[in-house]
Amino acid sequence: MTPHVASQKNVYRFIAGKADGHGAMKDLLGGKGAGLAEMTAAGLPVPPGFTITTAVCHRYYAAGNQLPADVWEESCAALREVEAAVGKTFGDATNPLLVSVRSGAKFSMPGMMDTVLNLGLNHTTAQGLIQQTNNERFARDAHRRFIQMFGRIVLGVPGERFDHALETLKAERGIRQDIELTAADLQQLVAQFEAIVERETGNPFPYDPYEQLRLAICAVFNSWYGKRAVDYRRLNKIPDDLGTAVNVVAMVFGNMGDDSGTGVAFTRNPSTGEPVLFGEYLPNAQGEDVVAGIRTPQKLEALRETMPDVYAQFCEVAARLERHYRDAQDLEFTIERGKLWMLQTRNAKRTGAAAVKIAVDLVQEGIISPEEAVLRVEPNHLDQLLHPMVDPKADITLLGKGLPASPGAAAGAVVFDPDVAEKRAQSGERVILVRAETSPEDFHGMVAAQGILTARGGLTSHAAVVARGMGKPCIAGCGELILDATGMRLGGQTLAEGDFITLDGTTGRILLGDVPLVSPEIGAEFETFMRWVDDARKMRVRTNADTPHDARVARSFGAEGIGLCRTEHMFFEGERIDSVRQMIMVSGTYQRLIAALDKVAGDLERLRGDAQKVSALEAERAALEAELETPARLFRGALEALLPMQRADFVGIFEAMDGFPVTIRLLDPPLHEFLPHTDEEIAALAAKLNLSVQDVQSRVAALREHNPMLGHRGCRLGIAYPEITEMQVRAIFEAAVEVARRGITVLPEVMIPLVGDVNELRAQEAIVRRVADEVQQAAGVMIPYLVGTMIELPRAALTADKIATVAEFFSFGTNDLTQTTFGFSRDDAGTFLPMYVERKILADDPFQVLDREGVGELLRIGTQKGRAARPTLKVGICGEHGGEPSSVAFCHELGFDYVSCSPYRVPIARLAAAQAALRQPRA
Amino acid sequence: MTPHVASQKNVYRFIAGKADGHGAMKDLLGGKGAGLAEMTAAGLPVPPGFTITTAVCHRYYAAGNQLPADVWEESCAALREVEAAVGKTFGDATNPLLVSVRSGAKFSMPGMMDTVLNLGLNHTTAQGLIQQTNNERFARDAHRRFIQMFGRIVLGVPGERFDHALETLKAERGIRQDIELTAADLQQLVAQFEAIVERETGNPFPYDPYEQLRLAICAVFNSWYGKRAVDYRRLNKIPDDLGTAVNVVAMVFGNMGDDSGTGVAFTRNPSTGEPVLFGEYLPNAQGEDVVAGIRTPQKLEALRETMPDVYAQFCEVAARLERHYRDAQDLEFTIERGKLWMLQTRNAKRTGAAAVKIAVDLVQEGIISPEEAVLRVEPNHLDQLLHPMVDPKADITLLGKGLPASPGAAAGAVVFDPDVAEKRAQSGERVILVRAETSPEDFHGMVAAQGILTARGGLTSHAAVVARGMGKPCIAGCGELILDATGMRLGGQTLAEGDFITLDGTTGRILLGDVPLVSPEIGAEFETFMRWVDDARKMRVRTNADTPHDARVARSFGAEGIGLCRTEHMFFEGERIDSVRQMIMVSGTYQRLIAALDKVAGDLERLRGDAQKVSALEAERAALEAELETPARLFRGALEALLPMQRADFVGIFEAMDGFPVTIRLLDPPLHEFLPHTDEEIAALAAKLNLSVQDVQSRVAALREHNPMLGHRGCRLGIAYPEITEMQVRAIFEAAVEVARRGITVLPEVMIPLVGDVNELRAQEAIVRRVADEVQQAAGVMIPYLVGTMIELPRAALTADKIATVAEFFSFGTNDLTQTTFGFSRDDAGTFLPMYVERKILADDPFQVLDREGVGELLRIGTQKGRAARPTLKVGICGEHGGEPSSVAFCHELGFDYVSCSPYRVPIARLAAAQAALRQPRA
């Protein structure tokens, strides 16, 4: 025995309105024990009991797995008080007290540690239980379950032994369900189980209830170092030295006659938030009967008639609990012989709509403050308020499941080709685009479709990212989906073009036919709630939007600017792709000749004195210039053709974002993404551009890359082809000038992608500033603008101090940064990432939840170094994580100026930012 | 004028053995001025002159580009002393002093700033020069050159004006070479040039030598802010405020008759290091005549007969210079009328062999210490001592150039197929393997070949890495090389299988035919030198070796263990690839069934009470087990077949490395690298494994990845297929036990690749320790071993504190770390990296020279965090950088325990480590 605990209290009682402990003592009493003390002290009718502290757990182990004598004495004394409170006696032959013995650590470890119910039963007290309940079958069943549970958990008898005896008896009786066993059958099982225990342990089953109690307490302490619990703690990083408490609580029974019963209730409607008591009740029944669904429960109101006093007490208790816990509660209760016992209360689970209404109502009822209300709604729950859902009452036929890549529901005719999708949609049909996976070439089909289903790709695949940006449902990576020439096969069904399916993008379910949907209603409470949200948050919330339409949608959801406007999608629209492809076809030759001319010019400079060499070089220069003529005309011509189209895109976006900043990212993907890949498409392109098939093929082959993610893309393109950067910047500033003249406030922020070294940024910044100056000077209109970069490579974060000497803003591109920091290809990680998450190698998919340890460390380093070099540096995030609540919280902690996410996640990000600010106020 | 310089000396003289300054005053006098002062003070016959300080440069700019009056006065006074020293007078009509005016900053900025020679010439002094030299043509030519140079540099006349007049005159005369112009022609040019200057500037050419001097001094100061110089400083990070000094030095002429002459000499033979004076001499000539090669110079010894006193003086000067500068010197001298003038001395360039011999000789002569000797040899120069070279005397026909991917030279018959290479080599032929690019399947052909040539791929391509590891020459990425069915085309030649070529891997040259090679001789000096090297260094040097042969070679070069033994090459050898492919073919099914069984087992555990569900699950389990039978047999069978072969590999390597540690990396590449890709190969494999072609195709397709670099590889394989890890670990420890029993000391270090999270390492470590224990227990032999990881992902470095709780060693895999930190794919970066280096966006190719700012920062973070968590952590590097001198120095600075590199770079790494230790001693 360790001396330091001699003066400490070992046992904390919660009996009849008095509790030794309270809700904040989780370290000593564990979570469950602290909760029981809290409820008891609040005057609620809780079954009495006591908690043996976690400090005893340490003494137990220090003493070589022995329960200290003083603890046992205190426990027995507390048990006396419990007996007095319930009017039953432990081990009594006529009116026995039964107890449950449960573990309870500081942190919840569901299912990891052991529980024994109905402790105190033996052949004597079982008779008493029959008398109490007037239900022999119940008592016999409780007895055999107790032996089984105690045998397995406390005495270590393999569970299969009992299972085998049970199955054998059922086979003998010719029955399939346990419920068909009679009281006599169960009595026989009690005897068999006792025999099993004696055979397996060499000792008879302990008859003495006190011996049972002592053994059960020891078993709970022992289970703290059980394999399951140790594994669980290691995975969840819970320290081993916390220890567990033991809770001993009187059992109460709702099946002791018509003055008994059991029920569950919510203090407010969990679907709508309506402030009325809402629940079900079953007279003369135990909790498990409600769960088993054998008898149909009555509405809670029925209790008003049969037991008006109890009902009134319950209403009062419910109201008191709601005020005590300051939130809507989910209650479990039992009435034993006219006495109400509260078995559990916890904050009620609720829909998003209910969450908002309850939070707002609680404020208006004066129970919580607006700040607390903001903390009461799960950010992700807002998703339900923004998207249609499958009608919960509809009959459905499930075809299969995929990844829930973009939330909401949609129904439509399946089409397998983006052009067909567009055509059918134009004639007013609802369509669902079904593809193996999507690429930027499918964009117009995705625009036309109600929803998207793909066989391959993960939550950050092209289909998923684009669909979320458009707020359309998408189910990705449905591995069972088979696509062939005739259509699609899934869940044993074959569907042809035009057949209807319904997608539930929130859950990933694919349903057969045109299932009815329900639209969410956004009430006045939502407006009120979001006003409190915006009052609380410190970070700005922007959106990722590539089109005027998306920009307007995002603004209606409260976006305060665009954090990422990708320009590459624009390259695919309509006839532009032809110009883009023409440019790419000649780009190689063009670049080679420009480089050769540069070299000749350098040589000419160097060799100015040597007339002979000069004339040879001049001849070479002339030849190169002649050779360059056609490629240059085609290359620059293509860019000139693109310029007005790009400009028009930006005009629309600037109009939609009047007064808010718009971050435009220059061209990012590798050029080969714009080229066709199949032989047919290549032949068509060759014909269109008047080139040989072989020429097109060889250019396609030359641009192919082993690892395109790490290839010739981002600013590497703009450095190789400064003309592309020039064209894009010209389009931005010409558009800005045009709308500024119309009185619209334009705040462009030009973002250079994939910078790894400050020299890359410097080279591109020079072009941006030069062209911006030219356009502004020519127009006589000055536009306030910033030049910055996406921080999406580890090296950019590590050298952020250098990069910030040039960049006026950083936008962390956490999608790519996650890829390079982990060395995970988003397109390929599907083969092992799910396994990693399942086996708890990683807690979350880092493409969904920002990895604080690794990627987050780079965000920290990058922000700190960047702001050290440039204190006014604007810092934001534009990866998918910008709309994920815990990632948004992390950005708040790092002091970011803004987050940017897809339009439909803007309200979620606003809420997450507000919660982060309330939880961790910034200096 | 700024007051603070009033008391400062503006002009530092170096005249007749006396100098105001000395060699350490580079800040004030510039590099050149300090050197001239040093030589003069050392008593060497240097043409007299003076240096105007860099402080004056600041005063010049502060005064609005005006030369301060006191500076001009001091300069004129110094010029008086120069006149006295050489016995000529500035501006004199009969014996004129001419001077050169040159810039000279603290750091050398070659060609960036301006120089004026022969200053002091006009029509009067030109007559004097004719008298002095007795060579009118020389004097006229000097005069027209002076006007041209002064006109362009000092007066800003466009150089083309002069060029045009010169070309016109040559055309009139019908001549092509300047040398054919007569004295009269040149006199005519002088007049024309003066007219050009007057026309362009509006003023006559300055006649007064003092005016010329003043203008030239100002021009040098002005050139400090010339565009070229500013650009150069920005690129080379030289501060603008250093300023330049101006050096005014008396001109001396070697063409003043038979008692004059000019020459160059080395104090020791720069090819062999032999300690004898070695040089060439041309009587009655100027330095430019030697360079022009019109007259054949004599050996230096000729001077001994014609001017024995001068020769003796020169020998004495050479010896004195060598002692003064404590290194072999490269000298330029001129004899003017029997007087010796030293124009330049600098440390002599030399071959690797000479460098070693000179360093050792200098120690033995008592001139330098062994530590200094170690610092005197460029590590990369040792390469020359280890590889054959193309005989410098051989006639060669250059076919083309590629990247010098692996040094040394080799000649052989070209073959285009690895099997053919193997067959021809077995019959005793020398062959060169020529491929578009190589893959692991070409390994046996590379083993058989003398050298490798590829059309694609960079310095870290498969071909390059493997060739360097084998010490064979390789030229990679030869873009002009065209391969087709008939053979290869290069440099206008078509070569068929069997035609001979010679590769010079050191320079990247591809030569036609069987060119003779010379083998380097390693002398006794090398042994002595490397002994000093090893005394000096603090880091261990290991090698990257995958075979016993490579291990032995590396050990002969001084390797102290293996830092990286890759096991995947072993998978390709002989018939093993069949077993590997069989394993891969069933791996998908095997893994799916194992996972399904795991799930069923989990469900059974969970649902133990529910008999109905249990029996359904048991039926499912039985079905899955039946289905698993064949795949399991094939999967495990393949691994069992591989086990003895892997074990034999390790036995050989452990034997070769007796007493030294061997780091073995478990399987790293994605499985698809082991599969065939062409239709033919797929059909062959299907036939071999008795599978349908479609099955093989679909498995190949399933394993294909978008970005294999970031795909399912490294420890992700070992986690998905723990059986592979088990087999490899068993092979390692069974081999270790076997050789340990024979008295060999085995120190295995098991390295888990591509770890990004400590949980990955933990999962694999558990397997390693379990299997290692099993094998050791079974054998009754204990093997000391370590388990560690390769740090090759940014996240691994960022979370090194966590990883080091499990890892006993870190080996930085800087190849992959460079890829992910920069987001550069090694296989694709060839399209833009050369451009980046050329345009100075990056100073070096980061795959060759470790990037200290980004990748290096991760090394620093990783080492610091790792050692904080585990002070005994062993830290090394095993990327290609482990053999690159500046990267090795960086590893020393970070306190690494060792570097590991390919066998042939071991001596280089040893030297680099020694130099780093001498330059920056560790605490």
UniProtKB/TrEMBL annotation, chains A, B:
Keywords: ATP-binding, Kinase, Magnesium, Metal-binding, Nucleotide-binding, Pyruvate, Transferase
Enzyme class, UniProt record, top EC level: transferase
GO MF term list: pyruvate, phosphate dikinase activity
Domain PEP-utilising enzyme mobile per the UniProt entry, residue ranges: 429-508
This enzyme's EC code(s): 2.7.9.1
Acetylation keyword on record: no
Top-level taxon of the source organism: Bacteria
InterPro entries linked to this entry: ATP_grasp_subdomain_1, PEP-util_enz_mobile_dom, PEP_util_AS, PEP_util_C, PEP_util_CS, Phosphohistidine_dom_sf, PPDK_AMP/ATP-bd, Pyruvate_phosphate_dikinase
Domain Pyruvate phosphate dikinase AMP/ATP-binding: start-end pairs: 27-65, 66-304, 313-362
Catalytic activity of the protein: pyruvate + phosphate + ATP = phosphoenolpyruvate + AMP + diphosphate + H(+)
SUPFAM superfamilies: Glutathione synthetase ATP-binding domain-like (SSF56059), Phosphoenolpyruvate/pyruvate domain (SSF51621), Phosphohistidine domain (SSF52009)
Keyword Transit peptide: no
Family: Belongs to the PEP-utilizing enzyme family.
Primary role: Catalyzes the reversible phosphorylation of pyruvate and phosphate.
The name this protein goes by in its record: Pyruvate, phosphate dikinase
Gene source species: Chloracidobacterium validum
